[in-house]
Amino acid sequence: MSTENVVIFKERKDQIHRKGKEPFEISCNKESLAGAVSQRACVFCGSRVVLYPIADALHLVHGPIGCAAYTWDIRGALSSGPTLHRLSFSTDLQEKDVIFGGEAKLYRALVELIDRHSPKAAFVYSTCIVGIIGDDLESVCKRVSQEKGIPVIPVQSEGFKGNKREGYHAACSAMFRLIGTGDTTGISPLSVNILGDFNLAGEIWIIRDYFKRMGIETVANITGDGRVEEIRRAHGAALNVVQCSGATMDLAKMMKDAYGIPFQRVSYFGVEDMAESLYTVARFFSGKDPEIMGRTRELVKEELSVLYPQLQKYREALEGKKAAIYVGGAFKAFSLVKAFRILGMKVVLVGSQTGTEEDYQELHEITDDGTIIVDDSNPLELSSFLKEKEVDVFVGGVKERPIAYKLGVGFCDHNHERKEPLEGFVGMLNFAKEVYISAVSPVWRFVPRKTGRKYH
């Protein structure tokens, strides 16, 4: 099946939309096409990336060693204290364990690791093989929790159960078992929990500082630079602010139902969304503190007075260049479209792994005619679209980087492995610098699409 001059699988046609030709309609939130080498991760990986940044917890993967190895240190999630999360532990199930069961091995592993590392809690991840052989994680975790006096929580994350989004739900369900078990004494009436930020390159520290300058207390980081005791008392906060809506929105809804805590969707990427996120929180608390909006305006004014003059030189060099976006959550893509506009660039391709129909409808409304909107894409499609649109810079994650470089396209890592913060006002400046360096590098003069040589 062909969309324009790009050959795609006919089963994928309804997950690709070109704005301007037909009324908006897209299929999403469905299982990946078998054999298409989807860019998505599995349920287990989805749960692992959400819980992994809780720094003082033990993270034990119950399954073959490959599952733990694949997700070891999977995010650049920094910690201001303990670094237990950066160690990867596995029960390393073998053939005999598959035949006779792995519960005894899991019990021994938990006891040994808790004695050795003294974690504040332990998360035990179920993998595909565990779901098949039927090990009872719940009973083993309950037994160890009683013996060791810490929460030991099973994460029902068998990879075959669905896609990455199911993993997010499994992680939220596991964390919810911690919430409500801690003391909320002394929490300010102007307080928030930061949900869905993984503290890549220390970004959550930037956001916490903004809130502090506004006069707001941050009760818990969920999950970047997270601490078990903070999560246990998170139900004492007045508001949940949800950054990565796909990853932690389920938890926000659980907390609203159980504890009546309202939530707001926010984004810390780009100038417009960062400022609006701060104003959204300030408006929520303006009834309790009439001066909070004034402090917030002063904060934004101060940051923009430094940022805008520096952005102009990058805009002059990037004006008219074309960008493609393929990220995990669609909510992040909204901010990136706006950020590229500030830089004078045109977004010609945008997609995500886990977007909903509402997410794609919003992308359709804020993008230009001719923009390709794609759900759960694969390397074949992404490569074809990048060549067709003659993209100058591609924003994605670790799995998209090889696609860009093989095609001679500049790349910006906006997901797991980045070392520079891209959130906040300073993050917008870092983003502009990275896009500039990638897009105008002289090396692209020698790639096949510039020289006329064939790809091999």
From TrEMBL:
PROSITE patterns given in the database record:
NITROGENASE_1_1, NITROGENASE_1_2
- Report the residue ranges that make up the Nitrogenase/oxidoreductase component domain in this protein: 42-436
**UniProt GO BP:** protein-containing complex assembly
Q: Which domain of life is it from?
A: Bacteria
Q: Which Gene3D superfamilies match?
A: Nitrogenase MoFe cofactor biosynthesis protein NifE, C-terminal, Nitrogenase molybdenum iron protein domain
Please name the pathway.
Cofactor biosynthesis; Fe-Mo cofactor biosynthesis
* Pfam families, per database record: Oxidored_nitro (PF00148)
User: Per UniProt, what is one GO molecular function of this protein?
Assistant: nitrogenase activity
Q: Which UniProt keywords apply?
A: Nitrogen fixation
Similarity remark: Belongs to the NifD/NifK/NifE/NifN family.
Provide the function of this protein: This protein may play a role in the biosynthesis of the prosthetic group of nitrogenase (FeMo cofactor).
Q: Give the protein's recorded name.
A: Nitrogenase iron-molybdenum cofactor biosynthesis protein NifE
According to its UniProt entry, this protein's organism is Desulforhabdus amnigena
